[in-house]
Amino acid sequence: MLLQRHTVLVLYLCLQIVSSFNAGEETAINKTEKNLTQHARRLKKTKLRSLKLMQNPTANLIALDDKGRFLKSYDIVTCDGYILNIFRTTYQNEEPTRKEFPVILVPGLYQTSDIFVRQNTKNSLAFMLQDLGYDVWLANVRGNKYGRRHLYLESETDERTQFFDYTYDEIGFYDVAVIVDYILNDTRKEKVHYIGHSLGGTAFLILNAIKPEFNNKFQSAHLLAPIGYQNYFPNKNFMKEVDNFTEIFEDLIKNGKAEIFPPVKDENKSYSVGDCLGEEKYKNICEELQIDKLMGLEKENNSKDKTRGGSIKLLAHLAQTIKYKTFNRWDYGEEGNMKHYKVKEPPVYNISQITAPTKIIYASNDEFVSPKDIEDMAKSIAKASIREVTRKDFKHQDFLLAPDVLEIVYKDLEEDLKHIDRIHSEAEQEKKSILMTMMITKTIQRQSIQIIMGQ
Known about the structure:
Order of helices and strands: HHEEEEHHEEHHEHEHHEHHEHHEHEHH
CATH class of the largest domain: Alpha Beta
Number of domains: 2
CATH topology of the largest domain: Rossmann fold
Largest sheet: 10 strands, mixed
CATH superfamily of the largest domain: Alpha/Beta hydrolase fold, catalytic domain
Helix content: 40-55%
Strand content: 5-15%
């Protein structure tokens, strides 16, 4: 019953959210109603499952260390039925005061929120922000180990191909959107600070490009090596696979290979990079795609906790954008594009729609992001600035794993947030001062009139 009531609320909210995503397919509201009707029908047919949505997150505390740090666990449901487990940092004795705006940390491609709390404590971005007094939330998206549940699809049965049938679009538009709205509703705040690495930055660009009204919900955005424009993609090994990747992707799907690092029964198994598709015969594909560099893995002997998972279609989407040298939505082919977008070519994400204050931080030697593409993206965004990491051999995963990341990345990020919050505080104080002056002036005027009338 609780799950049904929760689902009804989700469906109601989706009527207000989904229309922009499918704009161009049919009249937006008709398409939305059609999707929701289909969604409701599936829910009626689905068998009961013990999903155990967490309605009391204070009862779901996860201890992090001996310093009294904890995570609160929350389950939220996207408009298309995925159940995402997100977390919030807290202390054993929760602090009574917090900064004005919450901070959302969004992990990159095939990562989970674990990456933010498994950094060395001294280099942890989440812990640094928590100690500064911020209300820190750790996001997860569909397909990783905290996003493997759905209202009516199973991720580990014959339905897995359908479960993992998603691209950048859905992660940005559905997952990040519902996470932001949930946090704003829970905290009763007007805006959030957003920090995203790799695909976490991409998701921010997509959400605000497709649904620009979301720009007003971000006080600031810091994007660490976001994957976006692809005119100068630097990874030569990945480039070799691009031309043939559509054929590779279709072959993998036919053979039931829908995800990267699928779960295995052996809890003690140690992974190598070549295990990324679950079978030895696909080892060459995994190695050519440099999954180790993309996910921050060692070549061999990776624990289960280091492997995260997600849809292979994300790599196919990346391959499309590299091949076309653009930043576009999923290409269904001419016929499919006409059905979905009413045009023959997949639409390009219009990032000029992004108006939220945005800083992009990049490394000149990143294997997956070109400095030239970063510069071009910043020129297309109204309030964007860029900063290059000073260490020249800094890599894509070093934004989270490098031993010196605190000094060369996070300290500047900290100063940015302090500066933004200080400006906001001063502006609020000025507003209050003006309002107070107006109230005093009106009081004096009323008193003066009363004196004159009395005379």
